[in-house]
Each structure stands twice: as structure tokens, then as C-alpha cells.
Amino acid sequence: MLEEYDYSKEVQLEFCSELSEVRNTSRESISLEKKSPEVKNPSNKGISIETKSLSKDETIKSLDNGALIAEIRKAAKNEQDLTLQVIELIAEINRRKIFLKLGFSSLFDFVTKDLGYEPSSAMRRIQAARAISEIPELRKKIADRSLSLSVVSQGQNFLNKKASDSGKKISIAEKTELFKKLENKSTREAEKELFKLAPELCLKSKEQEKILSENLIELRFVIDNETKEKMDELKLWMSHQNPDMTQAQFFKVMVEKLHGQLAKKKSVQDKPGQDKSIKDQSPQNKSLQNKSADPSQIEQDASITGAEPLSEDSKEKLSPITLQRHAHNKPSQKRSRYISASVKKLVWQRDQGCCQFVDPGTQKKCESRYQIQFDHVHPFRHLGENSVENLRLLCGKHNRDRG
Length: 403
Prior knowledge:
This protein is mostly helical. It has helices spanning 56-61, 65-96, 98-101, 107-114, 119-134, 138-143, 149-166, 172-181, 187-197, 199-203, 225-237, 247-269, 278-281, 283-289, 295-305, 312-317, 320-328, 341-351, 396-402; strands at residues 21-24, 29-32, 208-211, 217-220, 372-376, 391-395. The protein has a two-stranded antiparallel ribbon.
């Protein structure tokens, strides 16, 4: 005869990893730790149903409403704590500029490409990281949820625009006062508050880019009245070709026109025979190839490279061989940082117009095309030459980080 289920012994199952199964081969049933009872079908009294091992999804479904709400609140709090920890780590990485040593041209590239965050999520965390670096009190506000991550990002972005627009640095007191006004506000409420403070600033440079399909991208940006009037005038001028030209069509026509001008300019620069290899033309390279060059020729080459004379202190630190070489390269004029157009072109073509910084550990190349600069591999201040072999392309941040 089947044993009838006793509901008085029922206990509440907890959603935790401590739930485990223990097989009882004699009764061929499964019981849970903490002496949890067998699960019965309440609608069919007298029928015993064996408990199977529960997956995570099944365990969640077994929770009653009260336990489910408690678990989601606990998980949300843990997620928030982890998010704050991520923000603090990003702030420290930014302070140390570690992302540059890893081969990334910006903190944004590191957070999106290395950490795998979506661009919008990455920007919110970066803005919040910069905010708490300047105002440490914001950590507590984020932790107690009086300021959300999105609102902190909105406030920091507003302050950046204000500083850029006014050309003046915003004081810490002013920044703190702004975030006080944004406390306990939703994203929409914070947006309204910021708009009241500076309507024109909120509209300025508000750009959005959204991928609609493989071939279509939605762009959203704000322009001033003067630009709009000029655009309408151009559309009227082109109305004989397209009387109903849309904004998107106008944008495409202008881009294609400018791109055509750029392609034409590049084709003229790339015509063969206009610029020969600097390696063949450079007098200093010719002298290096001819080891038996006479002193007068070497002195003439030195006048081109512009080597500076050594001080007495420097002479004491250099070997006799180095001193002898430098004596032949005594300059007739001061060295110049000027790099000829032909050398720049060869370096640009060789490096394909992108940053050549490589992380020694991972061998990851930066390849950023933002603010590209010419850098001396052997520093100019240490007699580095303005030659193709001694020049490379670096993005602005990696060049500045090199010192």
C-alpha cells in the first residue's frame, strides 16, 4: 500500500547550489539534502512521484512567488555591485593608461574589443569611470542606487560638452552640484533636467548611428539654421537633376563629390616617376653604402642630417669610436625636425596610414587611423634621422605615451 503524503512536514525549498540528490537504492527514490520531503502531486493524493535531479531552469520554476522576487532582488543587487566594481577597474586602467601598452589606441577600443562590451554599454561605463575618478562620492550614490549608471553617464557627457563649448574647465564643486540635481531621477527625467539647464548644449552634436541591415545605417544628428539654409540652397541648385531630393540623397551626393575629389588628388600623387625612393636619393644613405667615402663627403652628409655638436659632458660618456664618428659628422648648421614630403609619402605607404604600435606580449598591432603622427624609432633628441628607416606612424595617444 502506498504511503500517503504528510503536508505538515513540507518545508520551503531554497534556490541555491546546496540542493543535491542522494540516491536510495533500497527504496529507488531520490531525496534532497536538508531532509526535504518527496514531491507529491497534490491533485492526486496517495500517488508518490519521485523527484528527479533539477536543472537550474527547473529549480527557478519550482520557486513560489515570494522566493522568486527575493532571488531577483538579490541577483540585481549582485549585478549592481559587480557593475560598480567594473567601473572602478576601468577608472584605474584609464589612470595607468594600461590600454595603450596592450595595443589599443583608446580606452573605448579596449572596453569594446577586449572586454566585449557593446559601444553604448562601454561608453556608459567609461563616462561613469571618469566621473568617479573626479568625484569619489559618486561611488556611494551608484551603490545605493540614487544615481543610475545611465544618469551618471548623461551628467558626465553634459559636463564634457559644456567644458568644450565654453573652453573653460568645470570645477569639482559645479560638477558635484549637477549630480546632486540628478539624484533619484530616471534617464528621461535627467534628460529634461539637463535640457532646462542648457537647451542648446543638449542639442549640440547629438549624434546617433544605428545599424538597420547589412547595407543600411540610420544616422541622426543636429545642425544649425545656417547650415540648413545652405543645404536647402544647394538642393534648389541641384533640383534640375533631382527635384524631390531627400536629405539622405543630398548627403550621399555631397559625400560622393568630396570622395571623388579625394580620389583625384590621390591619383595625381601616386603617378609613377614623380617621386623616387628616398633610399636611392638620400646623400646620407649613399655615404653609408660607400664605406670608403672621404671626410669631406661625410661632412657634407652631416650638414644635411643636421647632427648637433656634442657637449664636453657627453664626450666623456661616449666611446672613442663613437667620438671619432661624430667628429666626421660635425654639422655646418642646426638640425631640423623637418621631414620632406617624399619621405612622408614613403612612410605613409609602407605603414598603410595606421598606427604601428605592437604589444610585445600579445603582438597585437594598434592599427588606429585617428590622429596619425610621424614618430622617430631612434629618438630625434638622440641623433635619430629623418629617414624612411627611422620613421614610423603612431596614433597620437601612443606617440604621447612613448614620451
